[in-house]
Amino acid sequence: MDCLPAAKRRRESKDHGDVEPSASAAAPVVVLAHGAGAPSSSDWMKRWKRMLKEALQAADVVTFDYPYITGKKKAPPKAEKLVDSHSEIVKQTAAKYPGHPIILAGKSMGSRVGCMVASLEDINVSAVVCLGYPLKGINGAIRDETLLQLTVPTMFVQGSKDTLCPLEKLEATRKKMKTPNELHVIDGGDHSFKIGKKHLQANGSTQEEAEDHALKAIAAFISKSLDGQ
Fold it and tell me: Are residues 114 and 105 in contact, defined by beta-carbon separation less than 8 angstroms?
């Protein structure tokens, strides 16, 4: 992995222009799915696409839009109804990058659908990265069935103040999961990892530093998962 801190890599990228890394056979390809309320063109998605590519030295980070979000504005359907379109993108990506390990990543709803896709028999992925997994449903019920079915290594990145994923509930779920899994907590982060100014000041930290720590944790997890294959 690149030993440069992520913040320094970003500065050098700005100074020297975006340089595409050489796509070796070992370089992972990430399929990054958006959340329920914002498309792949949102600022959050574009920023995390760039940061994941740098942190993982990925050959590519593929983003896409679920069909509902490109039509008339409406509430997203149940996650299960998005599996087909998501899995088709994964299959197309695997065909485009033969020999490269495929990593599924997603924000909120996109991570939940990604976990469903990872469990399909005709899908072969090396790991899943959940960025703000929505463990708790609208009715307050804990939705852990999808996670308990997973058989690929799974990484959770969660804000400590994320009301959609109480950390104690996630910890109980992780203990029941049958696949290797890890958790990185962004202290003070909400569902989108945003940290309040007072919290940052009290801890002498910045939003970028908190995200850099998360990216390093993701990179270490993916590296370990790929080495174990």
Answer: yes
